[in-house]
C-alpha cells in the first residue's frame, strides 16, 4: 500500500522479462490499472471487476498473459482482425442515423481488459481478454463520436468470441 496525501493507494507489482510493472487499484469502480509498452505502443490494461472471471486476480496467470500479448506483432494482428467486425457493430447501432456516422471510424484506443481464465470446464483457452475501441469522426473536422459507448471485442486466446457495444 502506498499513501499519497490523504489517500491510500493499493499497488501490485509483477516482473515480466526483467521489467517491473506496477498496477494501481481503484476502489470505485473496482479495477486494477497499468500502462506498459508493447512494441512502440503504450497500452493501458485494466482488470475490471465487472468483466473479470475470478474472485481474485491470479498474478502469475496475469504475468503469463502480459508475455502472451507482448509477442512480436500479435496485438497488431488481433486488433486488425477485430476492426471490421466491431465497425459493423457501430454501423448497426447507428443504422437509423447512418449519415451522422459517415465519417466515423472505429479506432483501437490502446487499452484492453484482462478477464482472467475461462469459466468453462471443457475449454482449452488460456487467456480471456477484451479489446476496447472508440467510434468517432477521425477526419479532424470535428470531434463527434459515440460519447456513451465503448465497443468491445472479447477474445479467448486468439479467437474472437464476441463483439458488442457497451453503454457507459
Counting H and I runs of at least 4 residues, what is the number of helices? 2
Question: Rg from C-alpha positions?
Answer: 17 Å
Mean pLDDT, as a whole number?
A: 88
Count of beta strands:
9
By secondary-structure content and strand pairing, the structural class works out as alpha+beta
- Let me know the largest β-sheet: 9 strands, mixed
Number of spatially distinct domains: 1
Helix content: 10-25%
Alpha-carbon distance between the termini?
A: 30 Å
Which segments are poorly predicted (pLDDT under 50) over 5 or more consecutive residues?
Answer: 1-7
Major β-sheet strand ordering: 1-2-3-4-5-6-7-8-9
Strand content: over 45%
Quaternary organization = single chain
Give the overall shape, derived from the CA principal axes: globular
Helix-strand topology string: EEEEEHHEEEE
Q: How are the secondary structure elements laid out?
A:
Elements: E1 2-4, E2 7-16, E3 19-26, E4 31-38, E5 41-48, H1 59-69, H2 74-93, E6 104-116, E7 128-137, E8 149-156, E9 159-167
Parallel strand pairs: 5-6
Antiparallel strand pairs: 1-2, 2-3, 3-4, 4-5, 6-7, 7-8, 8-9
Amino acid at each position: 500500500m502506498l499513501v499519497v496525501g490523504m489517500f491510500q493507494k493499493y499497488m501490485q507489482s509483477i516482473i515480466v522479462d526483467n521489467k517491473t510493472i506496477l498496477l494501481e487499484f481503484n476502489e470505485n469502480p473496482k479495477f486494477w490499472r497499468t500502462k506498459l509498452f508493447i512494441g512502440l505502443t503504450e497500452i493501458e490494461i485494466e482488470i475490471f471487476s465487472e468483466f473479470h472471471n475470478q474472485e481474485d486476480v491470479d498474478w502469475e496467470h496475469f504475468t503469463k498473459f502480459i508475455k502472451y500479448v507482448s509477442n512480436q506483432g500479435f496485438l497488431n494482428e488481433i486488433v486488425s482482425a477485430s476492426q471490421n467486425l466491431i465497425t459493423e457493430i457501430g454501423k448497426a447501432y447507428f443504422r437509423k442515423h447512418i449519415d451522422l456516422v459517415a465519417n466515423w471510424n472505429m479506432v483501437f484506443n490502446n487499452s484492453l481488459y484482462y478477464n482472467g481464465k475461462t469459466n468453462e470446464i471443457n475449454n482449452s483457452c488460456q487467456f480471456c481478454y477484451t479489446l476496447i475501441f472508440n467510434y468517432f469522426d477521425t477526419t479532424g473536422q470535428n470531434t463527434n463520436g459515440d460519447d456513451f459507448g465503448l465497443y468491445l471485442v472479447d477474445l479467448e486466446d486468439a479467437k474472437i468470441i464476441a463483439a458488442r457495444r457497451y453503454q457507459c
